[in-house]
Amino acid sequence: MNEWRLAWRLARRELHGRFRGLRLLLVCMFLGVGALAAIGSLSAAIDGELKARGAAILGGDVEFATSQRAATEAERAAFGRLGRVSETTGMQAMAVRERGAESPQTVPVTLKAVDRSYPLYGNLRLADGSIAHPADPTHVWIAPGLAERLRVGVGQQLRLGSARFTIAGIIADEPDRLGEGFTLGPVAIVSREGVARTGLIQPGSLYETKYRIALPADRAPDAAAEAIKAAFPDGGWESKTRDRASPGAARFLDRMGQFLVLVGLAALAIAGIGVGNGVGSYLAARRGSIAALKVLGATSGGIARVYLLQVAVVAGVGILLGLVAGIAAVPLILWVAGDVLPVAPEFAIHPAPLALAAGYGLLTALAFTAPPLVRAGAVPAAGLLRGSLDLRRAPWRRVLPWTGGAGAAVVAIAVATAEQPWFTASFLATIAGTLLLLAAFGWGVRWLAARLPRPRGPLLRLALTGLHRPGARTVTLVVALGLGLTLFVLLAAIRTSIDANIRETIPQKAPALFALDVPRDQVDLFRRTVTGVAPQAELRMVPLMRGTITAYAGTRVADLQTLPEGAWALRGERGLTYSETLPEGNELVEGKWWPVGYAGPPLVSLDVDLARALDLKIGDPIRYSVLGVEREARVASFRRIHWDSLGFNFVMVFSPNAISDVPHNLAATIDLAKGQEGAVTRALLPRFPSVSVVEVRGVVEQVRTIVSQMATAIAAAASVAILAGIAVLIGAIAAAREARTYDGVILKTLGATRAQVLAVQALEYALLSAAIAALALALGLVGAWYVVVEVFAFEWLPDYPAVLGTLAAGAGVTLVIGILGALPILGIRPARALREL
């Protein structure tokens, strides 16, 4: 205890009030911890708001949904025994403004029919501030987007299916909007009696029925959901509870948050290098004090304690400031990006993510400050008095337990708190591998510079020598430069490639229109109607129904505690179809396709990625529920699906004899010349009022918006890593200042001008940037390719001139920072500097 008390007295005397010499440590801790605190606090705030408003978002404490049918009497009775029930029906439809309207006259909508109990929680508020009450069969409430596109208002009429409705109000707040998930158009809400007037619900029509239940206070939602599944195992019911009211949004936010946390950890790891450089530079400047303490009898442990306390104080201040910045960033992010977030949470301080960010910061500081602290304590007084000429390194047997232990703790915490542990471990391993590769490259640059022929020009010769002379920070500079330039390339390649896909590739591959609920007995009339307006149109028509996978290879989906990684098709209902031939845009990779006219046991062809996730083999059984009836088919083949075509792609395609007897309609894709979409839609609606027509251009715009928002979030998080890289670069320059001061003073003593000294520094950084540029380009392009092709499943279409321009700009920033770092050296007087060296 006395040793620590003495160490604190000495540390407090030396510690400058403005943290002079340790500011880089402060900045790096602030950047890394601040990023993690902001990301964690925002995720916790949104997650907390989703849970707090779960019942209102869902529309009940528990929800049961199924497609193409309503509940049976027994099922309704079971729902009623649980609590108060509200029934809604949702489907795609076309809203039509009658004659006299300006273009566009039709808009695809999500038609929602509600009963008199809706909503069980919250209120359906209208734009005039009133609360909507159950509508009569002739009225409709519409979303603002629908009112704008059709240019209609309250009191005017529009047609849905074969029925006309009067607009009763414009919706301002639909309480369960988020719980409804992704939709292909603005909502229009009618009564259940109103939807019956439209004639849109027929045998085979695609619609979804939901039963929301308000439970008594003493009944748990999960228990209620399990009770219904146990009572009706073949019903195909998909359940949600208020704790996961919007599982799609929650899952997306969890994974996006986890990815951003990993980016924050990468930024913190980069900042850690700056921490090591800053502490090393500070201890080099304190060499005289350390030598004096050693001469007076201080032990290596005592020296380490003194400066460990100083580092701990500054790191603690940096971490505290980072936590404050992370808390303050949440309302700022909500203000800037509130429209794109699923909910707008109230301001609150969430201790758990802040504690996690602080823990990461402390462990990182420990990992990167251990080597310079051990080195300072291990060098004998005589070596310290020799100054920069003593180049001993810290003994690794003393450093490794601290650095390795702290690093292992960071990895263990990150993996333990991750939703996808293997992905997290792989990401962290990639970061570590990249750092090691850059460090090895730095050693290679240093080794090569020492063996290259000496240029005849003195300035270039001095610059080349600066890369390998004793005390050169080449390895650290290469790591800092390489990380920064790699991130520049990575972000530029991802952004330009995704933009090119959305702008060029997807619209070229995608059809112009989707048509849903085409009656099976009117296929020829539908085709003639389309080709009558657009003779060159190409139609592709497929049977379409909805169903749920209930079991595979003897495993019941309901019995799984967690779904296998990649088995997203097990979550709720999926589109089902049947075909006698291999669908267009699919590639058979294993097994055989059934022959035309096949009449044997029911067969199914699966997406190969789903088959791998479920570890299925040819011949394994698949059980599925359609319209509440469970059926079975055997796996006949595996297919690779080209999802980017935006056509009809199904994870399960059945032989016709497996499901063709189920009541269903057809869906169609229509390829048209640009500008013919409106004419085809207007021609179809009078003859096919039940058909919903969706313009793919609108869907692509939604995809573009979502991807752009994701790219912006990733770029914002990565910008912290770039700032950390710049801090590391500045730290490396500062750490080498003593050696560079020595070189500058000698050069000026020998007659060199300030311009020549500055030119040597500029040439050195230019050589370093040129050496690292090719590696940064390769690493950045490989990382971007993985994100674009493997994560987003897009084509690889980067804008190489833009990528190279970004790389050149990054190298230019590096050169400017290097020159600015050399400016203080120019003002040092040789006589004074020589007395201090």
From TrEMBL:
It comes from the Bacteria. Its main location: membrane. Pfam families: FtsX (PF02687), MacB_PCD (PF12704). GO terms for cellular component: plasma membrane. Keywords: Cell membrane, Membrane, Transmembrane, Transmembrane helix. It is found in: Cell membrane. It is a multi-pass membrane protein. Residues 262-376, 717-828 form the ABC3 transporter permease C-terminal domain. Residues 26-230 form the MacB-like periplasmic core domain. InterPro entries: ABC3_permease_C, MacB_PCD, Membrane_comp_ABC_pdt. PANTHER family: INNER MEMBRANE PROTEIN, MEMBRANE COMPONENT OF PREDICTED ABC SUPERFAMILY METABOLITE UPTAKE TRANSPORTER. This is FtsX-like permease family protein.
